[in-house]
Write a structure and sequence with these properties.
4 copies of one chain form a homotetramer. Chain A has 336 residues and is α/β, with parallel strands linked by helices. Chain A contains 9 helices and 15 strands. In chain A, the strands form 3 sheets. The first copy, chain A, has a 7-stranded mixed sheet with strand order 12-11-7-10-9-8-15, covered by helices on one side. Chain A has a 6-stranded parallel sheet with strand order 3-2-1-4-5-6, sandwiched between helices. The radius of gyration of chain A is 20 Å and the shape is globular. Chain A starts with a strand and ends in an 18-residue tail after the last strand. Chains in contact: A-B, A-C, A-D, B-C, B-D, C-D. Chains A and C meet through helix 1, helix 6, strand 12 and strand 13 of A and helix 1, helix 6, strand 12 and strand 13 of C. Strand 12 of chain A pairs antiparallel with strand 13 of chain C, so a sheet runs across the interface.
């Protein structure tokens, strides 16, 4: 039974606690902390976990084998570094940290430790449809990839959503997915601004990202965060001899009043709940994490930064990464 | 330029005249008659055709090379026989005649004439989707056919629709299609009565036909004539190694208010208008008609009669056909 | 932590043990037995469960709170009755027992006990798509149901598959689904024999079942157990104002060599694995089981028997059930 | 009966002659010319048309009421100007002429004539699916358009295909469609170069066009002319409250060998043959042409030129059109 300590008892923290205790076997939640001590106490009450004064105490607790970090983004660096120092596996919700420099400090700490301890919460890699996409691509039956067309649409976003969140909260999932799907780095990004939606409030919405990859591919990504009609994630990969695309996933079709209809998911919970389950199940089962690594978290942060810069300047921005330490070689399993 | 005389200027007659004059090249409408002489006069006014006192005069007219019969069903026999006697090609809307005996008199007259002159208006044989179904079937790539599942749904039917019309007007299209699709005769029929729809008025609706074929296949056919949501024609053929089915045909998909939707056709005009065009174009272009023959019209009448009997008795009814004259051998092209 | 004893360590038994220990939280497997003691020992080795000499010892074990029965069908009655007598919840793979009389003995024992302890393994009730179908039906938006068209196709079946298995192993899933979907009993069944597939060996395959329901609905069910192309489960419900149907479920579409393609599941494991997970998770979480009841197991056995009789006689067979004890009233939650 | 003269008896010329004589009623082909006099003679032999020494003679012929120009692109200006001068309606295959200046000379001649005589052969405006797209857009039910994503894929291209043809032959259809769909002009274009396909020979293929519209919309267009798997035309319009997209159009679905498949069109003939029929039928029936105008031909030429420049420079190119004469106001029906 793996004993997990959870830092952060907000919405996503509570959801991960539910998953760790009700959906995944072989795990028990033994410790929890939150700046809102009431929230921590409520989680503790349902799980029998001990409430700790802060995240560092959770990381340090003797009955904590592994840590899940779900606190605010700007606290991630502290807790992840503490876990690495303590030699404990740590699952950190995205982003890994709020600047490329902070991410790089985590990478360096992990390299110093000598083996992987950190996994970042990019759940698309665990989605059945994206995995099927990658299987077809890797099978070689449709040839080498040339382009990918993506769209990420939210029905709406919360009031606190800021213009940069289009990139840092939303597009960042596409950025990680692209790096994983094609096993290559993103070398430049350009953010274009179409006609703005009147549903969008102060946000620049939609936007169109054009990503350039080290293998010469182009990937275009529409981000619409006030699309109204539902939550819709699209992707089609053009290869030399064919294409592979995410399909609409409808369990049923209804014929009614002159139309054939099927439901569109309402939000990311509905679309990706199974992927979140698989993500944490595979994480809990792995001796060494092989999901999104600290390096992936760093690279996503760098591309994200460049995209925010391009969103402001409307110019193409080139991307330079630090040298990738051997620990993160694709043969190590995390980027292929 | 083929000169066509049209008997019957009702809805379907006017539609065929429009087709012959505006959609199909190489044809001119020179003569028309209807018991409603005003209706005949209106058609004549738009086409330059001469109004004749009755259908026999149309058939006899010197400037009529071929005849299209769209009058009431119980007059079909008279006009078709007259055309055969005159040695003129005749396209007759379904049914060929209102009893198997009358159909057989036409068959005998045509056999006496020595070559095919008669075509019956079963338009499904000209529909792109049904033809694609038959092409796959005949290609042998999915093996021999074992069953077919069909559904024929109307949004609603006119007030004058009678209980037997479920069979004689509606199911008869499926009956002809099945004989053509599999190149074999129907040997027995059973009509089952599911829970009746409260939309159906006095009609037994829906019904389920189970057709037994000479090649041992079973074909089940749902007929719903008050389905409300639209006009929907389905068919899936189960073969030994795979299946082939009619697809939903939607030019577009709309995403809106939580749903992905596409339109369903409103009625048979929308669904089969292209098939009607092809039917008359191929008829007009053929020296000898190779569409549904007098024999096909006769066989449909016999099966239809048996189905009406089963609708009343709820018993399985066996079907016996006369011997098929050589003129209608499949090698002649009309049944395989 | 619920302590579960497992009777039967064959393929399905091992799969349920894997599910109970790796997929579902809050459960531990403490006891196991199998006539093949080696098989029981291998399961025990991976779980820490104790090997017992026989199923009755598993049921009786002090550290067993609930029982899962996965042994051969003709032993089910003994173990289920023992569990009921011991007052322990028991999940029994289908069939509940191999005769209606045996099922009725279980029903009577449970009624004597006074509350529900038994759940039968009909997993379709836990499938996302079937549940969505039922939600639309129950919402009333498309009116009252009139007919349902079903097909159940296996790519192939094992060598030991007998003619009756078409009904007792395969159609029985459709029989339970129909009773649950419409909350009504099946009153008659007729099994029709289409042209036999040359892939079928000695089996009568395909067959077409026509089920008559107490609410006057008709349900037709194609069973094909050598369909070659894949595992395919279909269902469309015709209602007064619309229809609802199971959709093809494809995570992706591939365009290649002139075709748009998507994969069909290979077998029931692929199609229903998530439903099996949900089934056991809900069972483990429920204080009183609310899945398929002993009554459901009894009714399925009676209908199944009638269908086997009809398969042999080719006659329509009427179905009479015992009086349903109050314990199984729909308000108790298991049949609505 | 409208008497049509045809200039050019190559592949597309012969196809239009077939259409005018066999598919469309009310038209006769009376005159034909081609630099290859044998080709002209063969067309004449099948239609009874007279062979003329050159296109100008066809335009001038007394028994020619209207002209169809299908000769090489660089001869279009001469014949179209001659027809305008003669006051005869002229249908000109795309491009209207090979430079913006030449197109503008035709515009000026038509304006001087005082009413529309010229129609350009952009057939997508006549395609059922594109029209359905525009109907939904114009209905306002999904709000104002913000972006459109397009793809145009050919299985392969002929050996004589040059790099610029990606724009001038292929993308030009998308350019005209976008102007028509949104009733607005294109103000800038950028052509991006993804990883090149090894199927492409010397062509830059695929390319990604980003079009900026006067209404602030962005439209991205993938052009792949060696996509191998088939001919595939895609379009999805993102609006404020929903989307509308071209659907895959498959008459049938086949289940076979583990897959559900449906055919993809092989080439543009298969995909757009019905649109070509409607295009010429509506043209022949219209007293004043209301299809793509000389102005549309001019605008397409200007955008096309800019895109070719961007293809070479990889820079964004802004587009400036001449002032649009009143004759082409949207209220005149040709652009809205």
């Amino acid at each position: 039974m793996m004993r997990v300590g959870v830092v952060g008892a907000g919405m996503i923290g509570r959801d991960h606690v539910r998953r760790l205790t009700s959906v995944i076997s072989g795990v028990t939640v033994t410790a929890v902390a939150d700046v809102d001590t009431g929230a921590a106490a409520r989680v503790a009450a349902t799980t029998g976990a001990a409430v700790h004064p802060d995240g560092l105490a959770v990381v340090a607790a003797e009955d904590v084998d592994a840590v899940v970090v779900c606190s605010w983004g700007d606290t991630h660096e502290t807790y992840v570094l503490a876990a690495v120092t303590a030699g404990k596996p740590v699952f950190c919700e995205k982003p890994l940290a709020t600047s490329p420099e902070a991410c790089l400090r985590i990478v360096e700490a992990e390299v110093a430790h000598g083996r992987r301890l950190v996994q970042v919460g990019y759940m698309r890699r665990y989605d059945t449809a994206y995995r099927a996409l990658k299987n077809v691509l890797d099978s070689g039956t449709i040839g080498a990839p040339l382009m990918m067309h993506c769209a990420h649409r939210n029905a709406g976003v919360p009031a606190f959503y800021q213009p940069e969140n289009t990139i840092t909260d939303t597009a960042v999932h596409e950025i990680d997915m692209v790096r994983w799907m094609f096993g290559t780095e993103i070398t430049a990004v350009r953010v274009l601004r179409p006609r703005p939606s009147r549903n969008a409030g102060g946000i620049t919405d939609p936007v169109l990202l054009v990503l350039e990859l080290a293998n010469e591919m182009l990937v275009d990504v529409e981000i619409s965060v006030n699309a109204r009609y539902g939550y819709d994630i699209r992707g089609e990969i053009l290869c030399e001899n064919g294409t592979v695309a995410l399909a609409d996933q409808n369990p049923i079709t209804v014929r009614r009043e002159g139309h054939l209809t099927s439901p569109v998911p309402a939000d990311w919970r509905e679309r990706f709940s199974a992927a979140y389950d698989v993500e944490l199940r595979e994480w809990a089962a792995a001796a060494v994490p092989d999901g999104p690594s600290a390096w992936d978290g760093y690279a996503a942060a760098v591309v994200s930064d460049a995209a925010v810069q391009s969103l402001r300047s409307e110019e193409r921005v080139e991307i330079t990464l630090a040298n990738r330490p051997e620990l993160y070689d694709p043969t190590s399993g995390d980027l292929d």
